[in-house]
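Known limitations

Structure tokens in this collection are predictions and should be treated as such. Users comparing against experimental data should check residue numbering before alignment. To illustrate the layout, the record for DNA-binding response regulator is reproduced below. The input appears on top and the generated tokens appear beneath it.
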Amino acid sequence: MNATPDVSPQADRSLLIVEDDKPFLERLSRAMETRGFNVTPCDSVSDGLAHIGKSAPAFAVVDLRLGDGNGLDVVSALKRERPDARAIVLTGYGNIATAVTAVKLGAIDYLSKPADADDVVAALLASGTAKSEVPPNPMSADRVRWEHIQRIYEMCNRNVSETARRLNMHRRTLQRILAKRAPR
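Generated tokens:
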């Protein structure tokens, strides 16, 4: 456990992360473990639902769109099994209607990707009435753009031509962007 006191009312730090972007799932899992959570990573709705059926965690971070379904099904199942659980929804496809639905199903927050581990912890541990603080060093617009391009590139199995087509940009422009370091 970390040396900072637990600010949540629950001493149970079990966390389910349901995310189909494997590199992001691995990074977030490691980051949350270093912050004192007992993490169970799942890469599909079916795996997430199976884990909840065995042992419903105190916390969950769920991607909205997954390869085998909708992450809101996981949030709904978690709230049925453990009403005091705190779940947040992560998505790269945010819109108001989906955010409202997520909250109605029991999510306590709705974060747009890319969200870092500090944003996730702040959302999970925030009191019900307090709003999460704006991060002191938010990502620059260039960094957000770079993260989005990297995510699409990975989704296209690192195929430059397919990624360029989906992003509606010239292939050589994309190659130059991919060859550079990540902006700060």
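For this record: The beta strands are 14-18, 38-42, 59-63, 65-66, 69-70, 86-91, 107-112. The two ends are 30 Å apart (CA to CA). Please report discrepancies through the issue tracker.
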